[in-house]
């Protein structure tokens, strides 16, 4: 039987759903609207951070100062642009199967995302995440990734110690936040970051996607009860 203390905290974009590139294009559209052109690959390197930190990082990339007002407008424009593409979003391989297995095995899990609830709602519906799952979004905490607040809040909602949690994410920002929270970090290649990058950021193991993690759950301490 599984140790009842183990719990899983999942990132959303690039981990459970295939949405990273929609976010990249949405940020590019938002930047262009305020006259800040930036290559898509540079934007991609920042996806996974909180929106406010992305705005600060993009300021460094463009060399153009970003006021508080412009930063807020960028986030609003990004949300508007992203929501135009939500019907293109699909669950990543293994996502629904893994969540269903954890539920069947009575292993606690939830989602902790840097996205707002508005942007996350469509994805949660695609994944079949019910109201019984205490999802944490950027709206629920004062600081997003790479700060660990989202994961602390998620662990608290599940009534488990953060040290008993496995954080699963696709970006270095997820894994840096997991490391700072002192949780076990597991990286996925499904968001576009390389294996070496994820390991350096703190990943204990790196898998192609959740379908591969599902086959190797024993490596993170999950024993399937018959």
Unreliable segments (pLDDT under 50, ≥5 consecutive)? none
- Level of helix content? 40-55%
- Termini distance? 9 Å
What is the CATH first-level class name of the largest domain?
Answer: Alpha Beta
The CATH superfamily name of the largest domain is HAD superfamily/HAD-like
Which value, in Å, is the CA radius of gyration? 17 Å
What name does CATH use for the topology of the largest domain? Rossmann fold
Q: What average pLDDT do the residues reach?
A: 90
Overall shape: it is globular
Q: Count of helices? A: 10
CATH architecture of the largest domain: 3-Layer(aba) Sandwich
Order of helices and strands: EHHHHHEHHEHEHEH
**Helices and strands: which structural class?**
alpha/beta
Strand order of the largest sheet: 2-1-3-4-5
Question: Total domains, how many?
Answer: 2
List how many beta strands DSSP finds. 5
- The multimeric state of the shown protein is single chain
Features:
226 residues, Rossmann fold, 5-stranded parallel β-sheet, 10 helices, 5 strands, globular
Description:
It is built from 10 helices and 5 strands. By secondary structure, it is of the alpha/beta class. A 5-stranded parallel β-sheet has the order 2-1-3-4-5, sandwiched between helices. The mean pLDDT is 90.
